[in-house]
Amino acid sequence: MRSVTIEPIKETIAGLMQDWAAQKKRAPPDDPWVLLKKALTKRELRHIKVSYFRKGILGLHVDSSSWLYSLNLRKQTLLSKLTAKSAGIKDIRFRIGEIK
After folding, report:
1. Alpha carbon distance 73, 81 (integer Å)
2. Of 83, 84, 64, 100, which Cα lies nearest the Cα of 92?
3. pLDDT tens-digit profile of 42-78?
4. Of the candidates 100, 95, 34, 92, the residue with the CA atom closest to the CA atom of residue 62
5. For the chain, which terminus, N or C, has the lower number of CB atoms within 10 Å?
6. Burial class of 44 by CB neighbour count within 10 A (0 to 12, 13 to 18, 19+)
């Protein structure tokens, strides 16, 4: 019987895992909440909730009309920040709704 060496297989798997990890770091995050955490303050995040994310449109529920107004004033700036981090976001739509 011959002895089978496992070292080449281990090296191959280790190389594949490193490549996969590097690709994962380079890929833009798909989770809109992760992007919002980078673009908004903690105070602002307490007043919104992601409602949906379809076909490049991010729908957000806002807990009051004053926050809706405030976020609408900053919509273009926020959209610019989000599109810089992920090309998948094309528009943001705000609605008043419950935040739980």
Report:
1. 14
2. 83
3. 999 999 999 999 999 999 999 999 999 999 999 999 9
4. 95
5. N
6. middle
